[in-house]
Predict the structure.
Amino acid sequence: TMFNLENKKLALASWIYLLISEALNEINSEINVTVIKDGEKAIDYFDPSIDESEFPDFVLLDINIPKKNGHEVLEHIKSNDCFAHVPVIILTTSSSEKDIARAYKNNVNCYVTKSVEVKDLFNTIFQIVNFWSKFAVSSKTKENSLKDWCNLWRW
């Protein structure tokens, strides 16, 4: 493996969570993936009362999820001081300029349009995880806060 995902926590909210979970397993089985099947559950998951040690190191979020869409989930995450520092990567089929602009307006850390081809999708997930696993460092193990790392790499 090119990178160490041991003890990394990823929150995954996507309608193709099974396929993405399979790709993550191929990359590294050490990553702790929490699958969130819809937007309402995602908003419930990001509850400020949970212990900081339970926060995910990064989030893969699809815009096209049931009940509450990914934009609503992103707004919830980034507007809450407890979670605003957690990197959120949107991985979606939408290449709409309106969706992209809204995501960046709401402080998404990265917006990636996913391929419908499985091989390309797996490669994209590999690249995302490879990059973000290097920078999504738990504040418990690094003097610099995760927020500082995210601000450094936000584009």
Summary: Residues 138-145 have pLDDT under 50 and may be disordered. Strands lie at 9-13, 32-36, 58-61, 88-92, 110-113. Residues 31 and 87 are 16 Å apart (CA to CA).
